[in-house]
Amino acid sequence: MSDQIVEQQLELAQLIEHHSDEDGVHPTAIPSLFLIRESVVTEPIYRVNEPSFCIIVQGEKEILLAQDRFRYGPGSYIVATVDLPVSGQVIQASSEAPYLALKLEFSSNEILEVLNHSHFPARPQKNVRRAMYVSQTESSLLDAVVRLVRLLKQNTEDIPILSPLFKKEILYKILKGPHGNTLEQITIEGSHTYRIRNVIDHIMNHIEQNFRIEKLAELAHMSTASLHRHFKEVTAMSPIQFQKQLRLQEARRLLLSESTDAADVAFRVGYESPSQFSREYSRMFGFPPREDIKRLRGKTDETAPNS
Question: Which of 139, 185, 186, 190 has the largest CB neighbor count within 10 A?
């Protein structure tokens, strides 16, 4: 890495530390910007990754999307272009050198707005690509990120005016990058990625409902074979596997947040057989539902501050 990038990362690390006095994900006064700090290596965390840009300035992280493994740290960033069920794990962190990162969420409309005000040369639609990728950080991109985070230390009256401008600049730099075409495709009506995104939205809004693959293909204006192929190219999994991951993640969230039994949760997220739910839950999280929740609640109690 160049000396300039090292200096920019050092300033960004100092800014994140200043606004993150404890471990966790911290919302900020800038809409859609989150600062992240972890002082220990974490267990895998299962969640839906929204369309977002994430950059690490200290430590390392690994994200699993089905069987795809993305490992990144300082000098690189990761982009998710659609909602994706993933597991993420901080794999390098310590109290002396905590994991420090930021996440900036965005919408397809924000990408489209940048494209409409830019003059990119016409880029033909290429083969459908995975909706998550890692790329090398450039100094010009880091410069825009640093200026955005600096706003948190400045007069808050500047945030409503300047933060949208800096965010557009960041998205513009990403679009200009080597994988910009992947991000651009989510906004082009009629592109394969655009149509798969519509299917993803439908599944996410109806995770408890069984679907016919023919209905999804009709929604995407594709044949069933084409839908299967393009959906897997974008998400690394089939529509059924995608829905299964969403259901199991939601089930785990419900079990952690509510006093209810596994069978009730299984039916609420769309399973007809509690035994099948238990098997698939164990396969995904490594423990049966009751044992897993007891274990997670125990860890929460262990890390809670003394009263």
Answer: 185
C-alpha span between 205 and 219 (Å, rounded) = 14
List the structure tokens of 173: 């730099």
Q: Would you write out the chain's pLDDT as a tens digit for each of its 307 residues?
A: 789 999 999 999 999 999 998 999 999 999 999 999 999 999 999 999 999 999 999 999 999 999 999 999 998 999 999 999 999 999 999 999 999 999 999 999 999 999 999 887 656 555 678 999 999 999 999 999 999 999 999 878 999 999 999 999 999 999 999 999 999 999 988 899 999 999 999 999 999 999 999 999 999 999 999 999 999 999 999 999 999 999 999 999 999 998 889 999 999 999 999 999 999 999 999 999 999 999 988 875 545 443 2
Taking the C-alpha atoms of residue 126 and residue 280, their distance in angstroms, rounded to an integer, is 36
Beta strand extents in the chain (DSSP E only) = 24-27, 33-38, 45-49, 52-58, 60-65, 68-72, 76-80, 84-92, 99-105, 132-136
Helices then strands, counting H and E runs in the chain, come out as 12, 10
**Residues whose CB falls within 8 Å of the CB of residue 304, separated by 6 or more in sequence, listed in order:** none
Q: How far, in Å, CA of 193 to CA of 235, rounded? A: 10
Query: Which tokens hold the place of 139?
Result: 């100094």
Cβ contact 66:130 at 8 Å: no
In this structure, are residues 88 and 25 in contact, taking their beta carbons and an 8 Å threshold?
Answer: no
Token pair for residue 89?
């794990």
pTM of the model: 0.91
Cβ atoms of 247 and 269 within 8 Å: the answer is: yes
- The values of phi and psi at residue 145, to 5°, are -65, -45
Q: How far apart are CA 40 and CA 133, in angstroms?
A: 25
